[in-house]
UniProtKB/TrEMBL annotation:
Domain (Cytochrome b5 heme-binding) ranges: 27-122
Organism from which the protein derives: Talaromyces proteolyticus
Family of the protein in this entry: Belongs to the cytochrome b5 family. MAPR subfamily.
InterPro entries per the UniProt record, alphabetical: Cyt_B5-like_heme/steroid-bd (IPR001199), Cyt_B5-like_heme/steroid_sf (IPR036400), MAPR/NEUFC/NENF-like (IPR050577)
Ranges annotated as biased composition (Basic and acidic residues): 1-13, 21-39
The protein's name: Cytochrome b5-like heme/steroid binding domain-containing protein
Gene3D superfamilies found in the cross-reference section: Cytochrome b5-like heme/steroid binding domain
Span list, region Disordered: 1-43
GO CC terms in record: endoplasmic reticulum; membrane
Length: 127
């Protein structure tokens, strides 16, 4: 792979996604926690490194879905370490190994190609 090649295609969605321009609206941790897919009047949100994605259209994040554990949280640490444990769904990731930080960056790229960015966690220290 040369330095002029585009980023890996493995992160591209199979079906092209038309995304809205990213927003940087402040979203509180409390507001995020209420957007866990259990309230039909709220979007389902997941934050990665302080950036908030709307994952409402993906049933995997709804109650009973395989990734519902991430909904309404910033599970950066869990994504970096490929964990589905609720106790790992935390925003802190600075103390992780480089390999895990790379995995987290790949997840961020994956999400950014599929889901609208609707805001940033207010006061996030893990951006």
């Amino acid at each position: 792979m040369t330095e002029h090649e585009p980023e890996p295609k493995r992160f591209e969605p199979k079906v092209p996604v038309q995304l809205d321009p990213p927003k940087d609206d402040p979203i509180t941790v409390e507001e995020l926690s209420k957007s866990d897919g259990t309230d039909p009047n709220r979007p389902t949100l997941v934050a990665i490194k302080g950036t908030v994605f709307d994952v409402s259209k993906n049933a995997a994040y709804a109650p009973g879905g395989q990734y519902h554990v991430f909904a309404g949280k910033d599970p950066s640490r869990a994504l970096a370490s490929s964990s589905l444990k609720p106790e790992d769904c935390r925003p802190d990731w600075y103390d992780l190994e480089e390999k895990e930080k790379t995995v987290l960056d790949e997840w961020f790229l994956f999400f950014s190609k599929r889901y609208n960015i609707v805001g940033k966690i207010q006061g996030a220290t893990n951006a």
